[in-house]
Design a protein that fits this description.
It is built from 13 helices and 9 strands. It is of the alpha+beta class and 397 residues long. It folds into 2 domains: 4-135, no CATH class; 153-393, Bira Bifunctional Protein, Domain 2 (BirA Bifunctional Protein, domain 2, 2-Layer Sandwich). The longest helix is centred in the N-terminal third of the chain and has 41 residues, at 95-135. It binds phenylalanine (PHE).
């Protein structure tokens, strides 16, 4: 469309230059007497001419403004064609002609009104259509580049841990972060008076009066040892990743929320050798073949014997000395870094899940994912995992 406006405004003017149309307009401006019409039989031809003019002009009403001009030209109360016909033909008509003129005028009025209304609808639809065309997607434009996210480092490390354990026959299970004291403590052989509860101070939920039991945020993933053994019969080999909570004040190595992976293997003849072999395999897969490992005696109410598991310091290669000759700050010169707690499942625990301690044995471990991530990637503040600073997160795409 070259001149969308020009065409619709120009059309009536151009039309007015043609004789017939000129005549038609002129005719409605004259009386019947002036037009030398005196017989009713002459009336239909007169109106047919008007109608033909209307039908051809209506096509020029192409957009809203030309449609309005067209409507006013025909239906305008003072000088619209139909008003002129009423004034010039009908009103002064002789009684002999009046009836025929009235009838024809009614017919053409109905035709004009309905056609103009139809035209309005199609002009509106056309406007919507061309608006649609304007909004159409241009496939040749470059696409919208959406910034791609990536997994949080904790999630990445968790995935690495899972891959290693799954490859040696463990399956992954998850459990609730809101626990009962029974699963978090009692069934793990930690009765209410036990001093170890002091290390695991946590958050209790405010429950409505009359709640059947207190609820707390789990302090470790160990409750899932119990829940798993309640549900499954040996052999059991699972790891349990998840969030845990403790009422710790935040510092470089403490956070009130952190992540653990629990491990549990119970079968008819699992020994301490299976345990060390599994753990050493994991550590070497995770940190690399160069790391050395060691156990130290420790204590957990739900394992017996219990150990603390150490790896040779990843930062100084186990030498204990830093590059500048001083003591390595990470392992404080010892050459070892404490990694996690573990042990053989205490027979007392089997009593809570109706396993026969004479028939089964197994091992369990609980490692901090945050701690493993900090060691592997040389991060010295646990808080960065929870601050959501993209400058940190972007370093681990
Ligand atoms: N649940 C213990 C903790 O959070 C770790 C652990 C798990 C120790 C399993 C022994 C066996 O400290």
């Amino acid at each position: 469309m070259l001149f969308p406006q020009g065409r619709s405004t120009a059309a009536p003017q151009l039309g007015a230059m043609f004789d017939t149309k000129m005549e038609a307009r002129n005719k409605s401006e004259q009386t019947l007497a002036a037009l030398a019409v005196s017989e009713p039989a002459q009336i239909p031809a007169l109106f047919a001419e008007i109608r033909a003019r209307f039908d051809s002009e209506v096509l020029s009403a192409e957009d809203e403004s030309s449609w309005k001009r067209f409507r006013d030209a025909w239906l305008g109360r003072k000088s619209g064609v139909l008003a002129l016909i009423t004034d010039n033909w009908l009103k002064p008509a002789t009684p002999q002609l009046k009836r025929a003129v009235g009838q024809e005028l009614n017919q053409i009025r109905a035709h004009v009104e309905s056609t103009i209304e139809e035209r309005r609808k199609s002009v509106e639809a056309g406007a919507a259509e061309s608006a649609g065309a304007r909004d159409r997607v241009d496939l040749s434009l470059p696409g919208v580049l959406r910034p791609l996210g990536s997994h949080h480092l904790i999630r990445q490390v968790l995935q690495q841990i899972e891959d290693i354990f799954v490859s040696i026959g463990f399956s992954v299970v998850e459990g609730p972060e809101i626990e009962t004291p029974y699963y978090n403590f009692e069934a793990l052989n930690i009765p209410e008076f036990h001093p170890v509860r002091d290390d695991m101070d946590t958050f209790y939920l405010q429950l409505p009066k009359g709640a059947p039991q207190p609820l707390l945020l789990r302090t470790h993933t160990s409750p899932m040892q119990i829940r798993t053994m309640e549900k499954r019969q040996p052999p059991v080999r699972v790891i349990v990743p998840g969030k845990v909570y403790r009422r710790d004040n935040p510092d470089a190595t403490h956070s009130f929320i952190f992540h653990q992976v629990e491990g549990l293997a119970v079968d008819s003849d699992i020994t301490f050798c299976d345990f060390t072999g599994t753990i050493e395999y994991f550590v070497q897969q995770f940190f690399g073949p160069g790391v050395k490992t060691r156990f130290r005696p420790s204590y957990f109410p739900f394992t017996e014997p219990s150990v603390e598991f150490d790896v040779s310091c990843i930062f100084c290669g186990g030498s204990g000395s830093a590059a500048n000759g001083g003591a390595c700050s990470k392992c404080k010169g010892s050459g070892w870094i404490e990694l996690f707690g573990a042990g053989m499942v205490d027979p007392a625990v089997y009593g809570f899940v109706k396993y026969d301690p004479k028939k089964v044995s197994g091992f369990a471990f609980g490692m901090g994912i945050d701690r493993l991530a900090m060691l592997k990637y040389g991060i010295d503040d646990i808080q960065v995992f929870f601050q959501n600073d993209v400058r940190f997160l972007r370093q681990f795409p």
